[in-house]
Amino acid sequence: MKAITRLLATGMLCALSATAHAAVTYNIQGGKLTGASGVLVEGKKYDVSFVDGTCTTVYGKCDAINFAFNSKTGATLAAQALLDQVFVDGTAGQFDSDSTLTAGCNDESGCEVLIAYAAGFGDDTPLLTFQSVAAINRDANDPTQDQVTDAPPTFDAFSNTSTNRAQTFARFTLASAVPEPATWALMLAGFGLVGYVTRRRSRVGVATYGS
Length: 211
Description:
Order of helices and strands: HEEEHHEEEEEEH
Structural class: alpha+beta
C-alpha cells in the first residue's frame, strides 16, 4: 500500500508540473490573434488581450491600480513571455513570422506591442506624459530580430494606438486559480484510490479482529 501511495503522489506531482508548463490557449477571431490564456510570468498565469485605444480606454483608468505589473522588470518579463509563449509559429498560426496576424498590428513592416506598468504613480489623475510601457519591437521582415526594446515610445493618457497601424496594447490580467481538467481528473482519481485503500484496510482489520 505504501508503494501505491508513493506512486500516486509522484504521478500527481508530475501532472501538476506538466500543467504548470502547458502551452497557452490562443484566442482567435476572424483570423486575428486577439489574446491568449495561461501565459506564465514569474510563476503566475495571466490572460492577455491585444487591444487598441488609449491608455485610459484600454485599462479603464490610466492608473497604477489597473496595471498588472508595478515595475519595469515585471512588464519586461511579461513582454519576454509573449515572445517565448505567444508570438510563436505553430498549427494555430504563424504568429512569429507574420506580425499582422495579431489584432491591432496592421503594418506589414512590423508592430510594437505595449505593456503599461506602474512607475511611482497611483492617483486617479490621468498622466499627461509617461514612458511606463514595456515594448516589443516586431520586425515583419526578420522575425528573428523581434525583441523587448529598452527604448519604449513616449506615451500619454491620450495617445491612441487605434490611429497607429503599427502599435497595440497587450493588456494582462491575472488568471483565476482554477485547476485544469487534467488536474481535476487526477485529483479525483487520487481521492478514489485513497478511499479504496482506507476501506480495504478497515475490512482487513475487522476480519483479523473477528478471527
